[in-house]
Design brief:
By secondary structure, the chain is mainly beta. The protein has one helix and 18 strands. The protein is elongated.
């Protein structure tokens, strides 16, 4: 190829590459300077509260963020009934929101507003904006819980208990560990001792042998192997281990504590190293 022609082609390629660089830079600059409309908000729970009652206020932007470390710089503006303006500036969580409890000492109407002054983010310009004004009422001699409680049961009830019945915790105690003196509070029981049901422990029974053996008695072996060691009661179900001497295989039994009915049994093989020595 002629050297002059080759040089001309090389110059044209360099010029084309340079033009492409400038063109791509213009595109990047255009992306950097593009504007994004923002959507601020503010909310309060409850919107009617008593003097001194905690009110949870959330504010921020509905615009999404890219990573957990990011956040918007937003300001909560509170206008008091006497016209005094209170401002709380801060950074949102990566969800775009931030929340805080406030207690208002004077009755009246309080006006809440979220203010965003705008900022660059992810090569784009997010525009300044203000939320709609939210008005909350603070009243004297008023206090209403956010979530009303439930009355205690007045008739027969069963488990599991709906976790929304929060007040029932006082009568729903489980026996997840052996309590001191075998006393399990937080349960409603009968006023007098009685037997709901009985179940043999182990494979044999104990008691007086009688007959030719006279006063000799026999036992079921509980003195050597604790049949109920590690047993727990959860949500009205008794779980206990049925130990087998010198065996790595053990059985867990689940029994309905109210009816005495065995719900299920499951064998577990813990290996030769777990064999129980007696």
């Amino acid at each position: 190829m002629n050297k002059k022609i080759f040089s001309a082609i090389a110059i044209l390629m360099i010029l084309s590459f340079t033009v492409a660089i400038f063109a791509s830079t213009d595109i990047i600059n255009a992306q950097t300077t593009s504007d994004v409309v923002t959507w601020p908000f503010v909310d309060a729970i409850p919107r009617t509260a008593g003097v001194g009652q905690p009110v949870l206020i959330n504010w921020g932007l509905l615009n999404y963020l890219n990573t957990y470390a990011d956040g918007w710089n937003v300001t909560l503006q509170i206008t008091h009934p006497d016209g005094v303006i209170e401002k709380h500036a801060g950074k949102t969580w990566s969800t775009g929101t931030v929340g805080k409890y406030f207690e208002f000492k004077e009755p009246g109407e309080y006006k809440l507003e979220c203010i965003f002054n705008g900022e660059p983010y992810n090569n784009r310009n997010y525009l300044a904006s203000k939320s709609d004004v939210l008005t909350i009422q603070i009243l004297e001699d008023y206090w209403k819980n956010d979530y009303e409680g439930h009355s205690m049961p007045a008739e027969y009830w069963t488990r599991p208990i709906d976790s929304q019945l929060r007040e029932w915790w006082s009568i729903a105690g489980s026996w997840v560990a052996t309590p001191a003196n075998f006393y399990a509070p937080y349960n409603q029981g009968p006023e007098s001792a009685h037997i709901l049901w009985s179940m043999p422990i182990g494979d044999t029974m104990g008691g007086l042998s009688g007959g030719d053996t006279g006063e000799i008695g026999y036992q079921h072996g509980d003195a050597y192997e604790g049949k109920f060691a590690g047993s727990v009661i959860i949500s009205g179900v008794l779980y206990y281990n049925r130990y087998v001497s010198n065996s790595p295989r053990q059985t867990v039994v689940a029994v309905d504590l109210h009816t005495g009915k065995t719900l299920w049994e499951k064998d577990f093989n813990f290996g030769a190293s777990a064999a129980i020595a007696v």
